Task: structure prediction
Amino acid sequence: MIPRYQTILFIVLLAASAAMGVILWQLRVHAHERLLRGQDSAPTQAPAVTPAEQATLLVADDSSDSLSRQILSLPLPQNPEARSRALLGKLFDLYAASGAAHPVPGGAASVAQVFLVPIPDAGGKKIPGAAQLAVVNLTGTFASGHPSGIETESLTILSICATLNANLPRVTQVRFLVDGQPRATLAGHTDLTRTYVASDTVLVSDTAAPAGGARP
Result:
């Protein structure tokens, strides 16, 4: 004969198991309902795409040793530094394309970062809305893969400076880094230690003169 205390213990355990089963079932139902509510509240439309804007790229041409203006419609960020990087990325994509007039490998990924720094006045004060220095940080892969030669290196640098100035007129000076560090030359010839005056570039298509009042 089963002792009375064992019978009571068995009944208590059975009731606890049944209660636990009910609780687990309710938790499962509630979790499923939350999942369905999350799916219903999820956006059904893709996030808004940045609207396209008219952009001016100054594209190098090795055959004429010149820059030419190309007007393109591009989706550009509103942030000036992100916009600068997007513009140069598109410029480098053109150079990396098959049959480019100025073939340089790397594409948009060659531009690591672009920083815009206000240029201080004569007293050393940084004035809001004043001219800016663009610091273009290129990747080491781009620099090591760039064709060597004074003309081709110069055209790359001048096209970067001119493109920035054409789309962000406040950018009047440009300096270059490679992997975040100063570098003596781009690919053995063009000086990367100097500050370039972005507005010095002359366009053959506009003036019928050689490119670059600031030929490096």
